[in-house]
Specification:
Helix 1 packs across helix 9. The protein is globular. Strand 2, helix 2 and strand 3 form a beta-alpha-beta unit. The chain has a single domain, classed as 3-Layer(aba) Sandwich (Rossmann fold), CATH 3.40.50. The chain starts with 6 loop residues before the first strand and ends in a 6-residue tail after the last strand. It is an alpha/beta fold and 248 residues long. The protein is built from nine helices and seven strands, in the order E-H-E-H-E-H-E-H-E-H-H-E-H-H-H-E. A seven-stranded parallel sheet has the order 3-2-1-4-5-6-7, sandwiched between helices. 47% of the residues lie in helices and 15% in strands.
C-alpha cells in the first residue's frame, strides 16, 4: 500500500493485536520496531518471524509508565534506523474490577499505561513527522472508551481520553501532513480478554455481537494497515469501529 521504506513503532508488539500489526506492516516493507514490557523472548520471536519473511525489525524494552524510558528508546531508535514515520499506540492493560473496589493505585496505573504513555510517545514522534511533512499516528482505543465499562470504568475512562487525544492531535497537526486516527476494537481473540470471556457477563456480551463472533487480531491489523497507507491520506481525527457491529 505504498508505505515501504517507512519505519513504524508498534508498542506492545510481541503478542495479540500488536503482533498482528507488526507482521502486517512488515509484510508491506515497513521496518518495524516493536516494544515489549517484560517478555523479551516473545518479542524476539516476532522479530525473527519478520526477518524470516524478508523484513526488517528490532525489539526494544519499554515501560510506558517511565518517562526516562521513552527518551532512551528514542535515542536508540534514531541511532539505529532514524526517525519514526508511523506510531501505533497499541500497548495497554485491562483490569476487571468493580467501581467501589478500584484503588488510587489501580486508577493511576491504568491512566499511566493507557493514556499518559501514548500521550508522550506522540509528543516524541511529532517533531520528526512535522519536519518531513508526513506521518501516521494510530491509537488503539476500545469500545469501552465509547460506551463505558461496567467492571472496568478506569479502563474505559483512559480509552475515552485516548480517543479525545486522537481528535485533538488531528486538529493540530493534520495540516502538517500527519494524520491521527484511532481504531476501536470490541472483543478480540487475545490473551488480554481471556478472563473476561470466562465470566458469565463476558459470554453474554459475546452473544450480542451482530456478526456473531469475536474478532481476530488480524482483522484489527488490516484496518491499521489501511490507515497507515496512502489510501487513507484524507482520513484524520476519526475513530474507526472494528467491533462486528457492537457499537451501532
Amino acid at each position: 500500500m505504498k508505505i515501504s521504506n517507512k519505519t513504524a513503532l508498534v508498542t506492545g508488539g510481541s503478542r495479540g493485536i500488536g503482533k498482528a500489526i507488526a507482521l502486517t506492516l512488515a509484510s508491506e516493507g515497513v521496518t518495524v520496531i516493536l516494544t515489549y514490557h517484560r517478555n523479551r523472548e516473545l518479542a524476539q520471536l516476532v522479530v525473527s518471524e519478520i526477518k524470516n519473511m524478508g523484513g526488517s525489525a528490532l525489539s526494544i524494552q519499554l515501560d510506558q509508565q517511565e518517562e526516562i524510558g521513552k527518551s532512551m528508546i528514542f535515542n536508540e531508535i534514531y541511532n539505529k534506523v532514524g526517525g519514526v514515520d508511523i506510531l501505533i499506540n497499541n500497548a495497554g492493560i485491562i483490569q476487571e474490577k468493580s467501581f467501589k473496589t478500584i484503588t488510587s493505585n489501580d486508577f493511576d496505573t491504568m491512566i499511566a499505561v493507557n493514556l499518559r504513555g501514548p500521550f508522550f510517545l506522540c509528543q516524541k514522534v511529532l517533531p520528526y513527522m512535522i519536519q518531513q511533512g508526513w506521518g501516521r499516528i494510530i491509537n488503539i482505543a476500545s469500545i469501552g472508551g465509547q460506551w463505558g465499562g461496567v467492571n472496568q470504568p478506569h479502563y474505559a475512562s483512559a480509552k475515552a481520553g485516548l480517543i479525545n487525544l486522537t481528535k485533538s492531535l488531528a486538529k493540530m497537526y493534520s495540516k502538517n501532513g500527519v494524520t491521527v486516527n484511532a481504531v476501536s476494537p470490541g472483543l478480540v481473540d487475545t490473551d488480554m480478554i481471556v478472563n473476561e470471556m470466562a465470566t458469565v457477563r463476558g459470554k453474554e456480551k459475546a452473544k450480542t455481537i451482530p456478526i456473531g463472533r469475536i474478532a481476530t487480531p488480524q482483522e484489527v491489523a488490516n484496518v491499521v494497515m489501511f490507515l497507515a497507507s496512502e489510501k487513507a491520506s484524507y482520513i484524520s481525527g476519526q475513530t474507526i469501529n472494528t467491533n462486528g457491529g457492537m457499537y451501532v
